[in-house]
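Mods, move this if it's the wrong board.
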Amino acid sequence: MANNLVIVESPAKVKTIKKFLGSTYEVTASQGHIRDLPKSTLGVDIENDYEPKYITIRGKGDILASLRKEVKKADKIYLATDPDREGEAISWHLLEGLKLKESGKKVYRIAFNEITKDAVKESLKNARELDMDLVDAQQARRILDRMVGYRISPLLWAKVKRGLSAGRVQSVALRIIADREDEIAAFIPKEYWTVDALFGSGKKSFVAHYISDEDGKKTIDSGAEAEAIENALKAASYKIKEAKHGERLKKQPLPFTTSTLQQEASKVLNFSTSKTMRIAQQLYEGVEIKGQGTVGVITYLRTDSTRVSDEAVLAAKNFINEQYGSQYNAEAVETKKSGKKIQDAHEAIRPTDLLRTPEMMKASLERDQLRLYTLIYKRFLASRMAPAVYNTISLKIDAISGSKTYHFTSSGSNVKFDGFMKVYTNDDTEKAENAFLLSDVDENTSLQFNSLEKKQHFTQPPAHYTEASLVRALEELGIGRPSTYAPTISVILGRRYIIKENKNLYISELGEAVNGIMKEQFPSIVDVNFTATMESLLDKVEEGEVKWKTILRNFYPDLETSVKEAEKNLEKIEIRDEESDEDCDVCGRRMVIKYGPHGKFLACPGFPECRNTKPYLEKIGVACPVCGKDVIARKTQKGRRYFGCSGYPDCDFISWSMPSEEKCPTCGQYLVVKGQKLVCSDQQCGFTKERAQKDE
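Not the wrong board. Structure tokens:
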């Protein structure tokens, strides 16, 4: 009869762990949290030093009853929830909810980074007490998030529409996207030119790039300047001033953390952050492998550490020696250094057994599982391999035209030793270029000048955020932690504050309204530095350096003051629907402007008697530069804002930037609004001017 009870989080792990431990162990699952703050109220006793009021989660009563029965049968209870602060908190809630202290039974906390027989058995040998610093760090996060959400969200309901929400991390993420959109909207392209020379060497040719004149001026700012350089160089003599041969190392990549896995899976596999985490969870919890049963094939997926266990290092070394040869083994591998706290209890994300190659796993994994597993497998293997080595050549070329000298540069490379690239390459991997230069060219080589090519370019605005680049930004700014990136993005997408179009994230009209209120009324909540500092303090709770209630005591009074101030400001505003100039086609009432999931729309105020709605066509007070009809703000199918003619489809005028009534004095095209400037819509014209006050 089983006298040891192991409680895990997920039912998917039960069968696997039971198989590892045998008949003296009963394994059951809590199915996540069993207790939480109530949904109907704040759930925090402000008057009683911010004491949380936990209740059993609705629907978890039967699970708790079943767990109590199992506890009665057991002599020892092992709490085996996930190995992070959230898992530690679930174990604590089980301890409290099942009254394990009062039961007189022996209770232990065990944690394993991978669901393998060795890891699970080792965790039993290293059973410990609950880490209350981890629990308190989770409680502090949960309560801070609750305070922000429950105190601010009702104000958004009153000002914009019901069902909106604010959040400690989500509101900052929204602001980061909004600020980037403002940067892009205000960006004014700047013209520049490049001049390249095409040379022949034997039967092959290569390109050299103009870098400066003899006075050191590197930029070519206009077509006239480029043409003057081109004319001066047509009759120039060209000589290789320096041919520098060398070697360059390309370092092996680090193994995946949660953040880098999400970024690479987005870039390589086109997975959303939530899809990456869902599939990684499946691989961690276990998949059915023929002849082996259910086995966890990767280590724990929520980590910001690149550390690898000694056992995994040795296994990788042996595998690489056997499969590729000792020259492919790395002598030493760096791990990521960071100014902020790294949760080093976890390893990097890696396969649990290198003998389970992607080829062997094809029969056991679904298509997307195999694609993600292959990415993790190859990245880890590459991280333990030697750097790649490139042979390189760098040429400095002088063009002598009369009394003037112009400087060009060119380079060549080829792979001397492929190292980690034997198993792992990506878009950043350099391709060999101009490799023939390595053996065919030196200072004595005479150059055969073929032609010059000048090209006009314009500087580009910052790129729109994608899920991958937003995760990278949040991580670099110290906002959120590995477990929060995917849910944060899912929330702001789900609330339709942002929209996703061809991987890019754009702020919606609704998102602009919410972000505007948050910036005006709660500037500290959406302040990047404030939020990063709060994350750092929460890490200090985890380290035992700060008491969790100290953070709440310092945070809540300021939040409450801001909420009351915002309530007063909102009281001055009559919260009623804005009237449009459109009449209802059904009942004749004047229609009003409302917010829906996709932004503004027109609705009859006679609802529910009259349910008529119409699209809202927002006139911006500008005539179409093509046909003279009104220009209106429109939206793409997914909700991205642009400007188009109200006469569509007869007139197909569109612009991503807001057009102005003014014409360009240089070329006659219409001007568009870019921040505080008006800019010619013809990029090649380049005319700009300050906006007049009336344009604000």
